[in-house]
Amino acid sequence: MWRGSRGRRVAERAPLRVAFVNIPRRLWAGGHSYQRNLFAVLDRHQPGAIVPVLFAGMNDAADEIATLASIPNVEVVRSVAFDHAGRGLLSALALGLDRPAVAEFRAHRIDLVFESARFFGWRLPLPAIAWFPDFQHKRLPHLFSRASRLRRDLGFRVQIASGRRIMLSSVSALQDLRQFYADPANGVSVVRFATEPPLALLATNPFDVVAQYDLPARHFYLPNQFWRHKNHRTVIEALAILKQRDFHAIVVASGATQDPREPGFFEAAMKQVQARGLDKSFRHLGMIPLEHVYALLRTSIGLINPSEFEGWSTTVEEAKSFGVPMILSDIDVHREQADGIARYFGTNDSEALARHMSDVLASAGPVIARNLQASLEERVRAFATDFVQLAQETVRSVQPR
Question: What is the pTM of this model?
Answer without folding.
Answer: 0.86
